[in-house]
């Protein structure tokens, strides 16, 4: 048995002093508004009551949190550190206390933010939007480009769902679900000199290539694989995404090496070929924060993404 008192007092069951959890709401308002008066209006308290609450927060955290700068207040480094964490905590509490409801997608009005890798929108976006439009016309999808593997947007709630390859750097707290397996292939324009006959290892290495690197590196996994075989390819251009690499390959004699399924819609009219050296296939998954597990609308969204990618297994 445990207790969660509204004010700081001794819990005789737990034999410990519990903090006033309402201070989290006060802290969230102060950090969001950046002023005592603004936070007081937001929480419908008097300025004097809010000032007393700020004093209690300073005493509890051991930090001034907001300090005067000219006519206003600015947050301390500790306050900036707490701002995102407090918001996440409050959303988690709201999720726990919110009664479970049966979801009716037709009545759902909500915007979901999806952070996706290059090519996902072009290949799976139309099917996903068609499914959602038919079931939930009040739902809007906001697609944002995935430029790194930072999981902070999922933790803070800035992003609802993410797609990509789950690497070693992924946060272990995140939930994942496999969407599809993909592999790298070579792509060239129709009529490319290499389009006549089989693309051998020697012909591939002798060609001029466009490298895809989000971090602007001079080599990638393909170059490591070629190096193990004693080969090296010539890199003529480096781009930050597959769509740009394919655009260059379409209009030149450059060869692009891209994920097969992820770029299917963008490769129309071009010739794709299997790489003449071994490259392991990889798994593309969707990722979300565990606090969204119990959200019926989010579960429904995950099901729509699975179906748009050709999966029918239940979430």
Number of strands: 14
The chain-level mean pLDDT equals 86
What CATH architecture label of the largest domain applies?
3-Layer(aba) Sandwich
Q: Trace the largest sheet across and list its strands.
A: 6-5-7-14-8
How would you characterize the largest beta sheet? 5 strands, mixed
Radius of gyration: 26 Å
Low-confidence stretches: 1-16
SSE arrangement, N to C:
EEHHHEEHEHEHEEEHEHEHEEEH
The percentage of residues in β strands lies in 15-25%
The percent range for helix content is 25-40%
Count of discrete alpha- or pi-helical segments spanning 4 or more residues: 10
Corresponding CATH superfamily of the largest domain:
Periplasmic binding protein-like II
What structural category do the secondary elements indicate? alpha/beta
The CATH topology label of the largest domain is: D-Maltodextrin-Binding Protein, domain 2
Termini separation (Å)? 33 Å
Number of domains: 3
CATH class identity of the largest domain = Alpha Beta
Q: Looking at the structure, what is the overall shape?
A: elongated
Overview of this structure, please?
A five-stranded mixed beta sheet has the order 6-5-7-14-8, with helices on one face. Strands 11-10-12-9-13 form a five-stranded mixed beta sheet. Helix 1 (22-33) crosses helix 3. It has helices at 22-33, 36-43, 47-61, 77-97, 120-135, 152-156, 201-206, 221-228, 242-250, 296-308, and strands at residues 9-11, 16-18, 66-69, 72-75, 110-116, 139-145, 161-164, 175-182, 184-188, 208-212, 234-239, 255-259, 271-274, 282-288. It has ten helices and 14 strands. Helices cover 36% and strands 23% of the residues. The protein has three domains: 9-97, Arc Repressor Mutant, subunit A (Orthogonal Bundle); 105-182 and 283-308, 3-Layer(aba) Sandwich (D-Maltodextrin-Binding Protein, domain 2); 184-280, Periplasmic binding protein-like II (D-Maltodextrin-Binding Protein, domain 2), CATH 3.40.190.10. With 315 residues, the protein is α/β, with parallel strands linked by helices.
